[in-house]
């Protein structure tokens, strides 16, 4: 499974989020990898899920992308709950 952590520039916020998402994936035994990317590149990149702030996810949404909105990028609990409801909830 491919997940993209997205922020405006693809550097700080998305990098930190991708690290935390990868930790959560491992703890939840979900086979996948999260990489960070800027918004412009993410619009053309194919992934199973896109994760980021609600504002960024709103700009990314095109009706086909599966997006996950996160308020607190460093909250392991929020990230795990979001991944559980979006990914494990669909199985």
TrEMBL record:
It holds the Pfam family PTS_IIB. One of its GO terms (biological process) is phosphoenolpyruvate-dependent sugar phosphotransferase system. Residues 1-91 form the PTS EIIB type-2 domain. Gene3D superfamilies: 3.40.50.2300. Keywords: Sugar transport, Transferase, Transport. The keyword Transport applies. GO terms for molecular function: protein-N(PI)-phosphohistidine-sugar phosphotransferase activity. InterPro entries: PTS_EIIB-like_sf (IPR036095), PTS_EIIB_2 (IPR013011), PTS_EIIB_2/3 (IPR003501). It comes from the Bacteria. Coiled coil: none annotated. This is PTS sugar transporter subunit IIB. It comes from Psychrobacillus psychrodurans.
